[in-house]
Please model this.
Amino acid sequence: MKRLATLDTEPAAKLVEYLASLHITSSTQSSTEESGLICSELWVEDANYDQACEAAEAWAEREADASARQAKRICPKCRSPHLDYVEHPRLGLVYRCRDCGTVVVR
Model:
């Protein structure tokens, strides 16, 4: 078994559900971080580790997109939720759309 991720309990449960929908079996164990927070460690079989990593990355991106849409951070030009903070020479930190390159000042 290999550890796939350590997440808060709620996101860990969502990731386990997503992995199960892809027929990737995983298990969780509760752990306590040095800060005292209780987290869930996700474990997968060694043979499924690479597939589980790819699935976890896809899940994380989908969750980030959903969160951005919910926060209404979308590109005004192409409606993409893929906005990243970038340094602008005159404006400081601004959003830049990953899909079309539009600079968004909020």
In short: The beta strands are 2-7, 26-32, 38-44, 83-88, 92-97, 103-104. Residues 8 and 35 are 13 Å apart (CA to CA). Helices lie at 9-21, 49-70.
